[in-house]
Each structure stands twice: as structure tokens, then as C-alpha cells.
Amino acid sequence: MLDTELMTYLRERLPAYMVPSAIVVLDALPRTPNDKVDLNALPAVTVQPGMDGEPRDDLERELADVWRQVLELDDVGIHDDFFDLDGNSLQVIRLVSHIQRSHGVGIPAEDVFEHSTVATLAARVRAEMAANGERP
């Protein structure tokens, strides 16, 4: 419960790229003999996508596939957050480029930061396509 409250707090106050993908509570930081933090002794943290929602249509399915490729993951749900899955700004550019090539709509990279799930980004792409008079 503490970690979800902390994540909510951080999301409200930090840009998306600065919010950590995981929080690990330790009793104490491991130390080297020189009393520095022993980075090699820290526990490994892996973020597992929750397969949080199956794609509901072709656009969501396509975007989820692109996320899997860009993020090099096996599973991505439509409600998984791009940045919680360790997405970064270079991968955002690849994603935006794919949307431009596949659907002919220019989505600014900032939109991925604001619409960071497959479901919300698909809605943004649909809105842009509709504004251009295209059928989503």
C-alpha cells in the first residue's frame, strides 16, 4: 500500500520520465568496506508488465504490438504505462514514427507522455484521425 501511495505522490509532482518504475523498501543500504553504497549488493528489480487488459480493437492490438517490439517485452496490456515498463524518450520517438508511417497522423512526442497507455494513446490517435477526416 505504501508503494502505491508513494507512486501516486510522485506522479502528481514529477514529470513522467522521472517517476521510478519500481520501489523497493530496504532495512538498510548495503555498504562496502569503505562505507559507500554497494551497488552490486542491491537487490535486482524487474518490472513485469501486468498484461493489464487485452486489446479491444485493431488499433489497440497494433499499438500493443509496437510497444512489445520497442520495449522488447513479451506481454503488454492496454492499461500498462509505457514509462512504468521502462520506456524512454528515444523509444517514444520510435513509437511516434511508427504511428506516422502506419496511420498518416502526426502525434507529437509530448502526447505519449500525456497518454502513456495503449488505451489512451489509441484514443488520441483516433481523435487525430477523425480530425483529419480519416476513418480510424
Q: Roughly how many Å apart are the termini?
A: 39 Å
**Into which percentage range does the β-strand content fall?**
under 5%
Tally of extended strands?
A: 0
Largest sheet: none
Overall helicity: 40-55%
Principal-axes geometry comes out as elongated
Describe this structure in words.
This protein is mainly α. The chain is 45% helix and 0% strand. It has helices spanning 2-13, 58-71, 89-103, 109-114, 118-131. Helix 2 (58-71) packs antiparallel against helix 3 (89-103) and helix 2 (58-71) packs across helix 5. It is elongated and about 65 Å long. The N and C termini lie far apart (39 Å).
SSE layout:
Elements: H1 2-13, H2 58-71, H3 89-103, H4 109-114, H5 118-131
Task: Write out key terms for the chains shown.
0% strand; 136 residues; mainly alpha; single chain
Summary of the model, kept short:
This protein is mainly α. Helices cover 45% and strands 0% of the residues.
